Amino acid sequence: MRLRRIALIVSFAFAAFVAAAGQSRPERRVAVTFDDLPMSGGGNPDGPTVVESNRKIVAVLAANKIPAVGFVNERQLEAAGQQEERRAALRMWVEAGLELGNHTYSHKYFYNTPLAEFQQEVIKGEPFTRQLLSTRGMKLRYFRHPFLNTGRTVADKQAFEKFLSERGYTVAPVTHDNMEWVFAREYAKALVAKDDEKARRVAAEYVPYMERMFEFYEQLSVELFGREIPQVLLVHANLLNGDHFQRMVEMMKRRGYRFVTLEDALKDESYKHQDAYAGPVGISWLQRWLVTRGREFRKEPYLPEYMRQFDSPRSSGSDFKSRPGR
């Protein structure tokens, strides 16, 4: 009898521990977005084609039931000798039930592009994407700013957002900004040079870095809102993700993330907060909300030591000078 009582006590204690653990783990959701479709960065002449790399990415998204959005630069569709291949890559996304958005025609930097010219970049970036979506009864509804730059001034930012709204667009914000593009660039270079050791090392550093970035933005979300909001992840359509995005998915799942549509993520009240930032640096919307509230900018985790040798920061103006990358 005494043994039975002890067993019951242990059983109840274990159940309470499991319940408490479950309650303490935040609900984590993420909307996955890819920029620069059909292909970002350099390629390997002897390696995967644009179609092959996109097929790998789409296969990972489909296998894991991830409702991603891919943002298109239609200028890429004009690449000499690759027009049909690049259009075929975009068709694969739509045929898999994935959504495409507008990332401007040629990925211009809004900060030093006149407003009227930048608006034409949006219009010029629509025709093929809009037509392709229509074949599946879908509409072109999301816009992503190149370099996450929303304009030189608040007036330009607001005028452009009004223009987008009138054309039926919703701005696709990003909360999980990162320097993934450095990893992708060096991975592509390594493949071209047939430097297997460098390619292996860059790939090995990639996912742990991205996990540190998740930790940073999760904490920043709690600081701002007292909870973890649905994250919007920015990565790119490139050779690195063609070969290694499944590892990214496994990391996100291990951290407890559930994959949601961009539409569902943006329903969260946090995305209604004011963003009054304008300037040369493209930054995460979590950072924008922080700066809008008059709070100090939070410097993100930098590249791992091995990758720092490959960083060549772009000149990005006077504010947030200490921010590496972009």
Number of helices: 12
| Secondary-structure class | alpha/beta
Helix content: 40-55%
Helix and strand element order: HEHEHEHHEHEHHEHEHHH
Rg from alpha-carbon coordinates: 21 Å
Strand content: 5-15%
Low-pLDDT regions = 6-23, 315-326
The largest pleated sheet is described as: 5 strands, parallel
Shape: globular
Question: Span from first to last CA?
Answer: 68 Å
Total strands: the figure is 7
Mean pLDDT over the residues? 90
Notes on the structure:
The protein is an alpha/beta fold and 326 residues long. Helix content is 48%, strand content 10%. The protein is built from twelve helices and seven strands. Strands 1, 2, 3, 6 and 7 form a five-stranded parallel beta sheet that branches. It has a two-stranded parallel ribbon with strand order 4-5. Helix 2 (50-63) links the parallel strand 1 (28-37) and strand 2 (69-72). The longest helix is centred in the middle third of the chain and has 30 residues, at 196-225. The model is unreliable at 6-23 and 315-326 (pLDDT under 50).
Task: Note the topology.
Layout: H1 2-24, E1 28-37, H2 50-63, E2 69-72, H3 83-95, E3 99-102, H4 115-124, H5 127-134, E4 142-143, H6 154-166, E5 170-171, H7 180-192, H8 196-225, E6 231-236, H9 239-254, E7 257-259, H10 262-265, H11 285-292, H12 305-308
Parallel strand pairs: 1-2, 1-6, 1-7, 2-3, 4-5
Features of the shown structure:
five-stranded parallel β-sheet, two-stranded parallel ribbon, alpha/beta, 326 residues, 12 helices, disordered C terminus
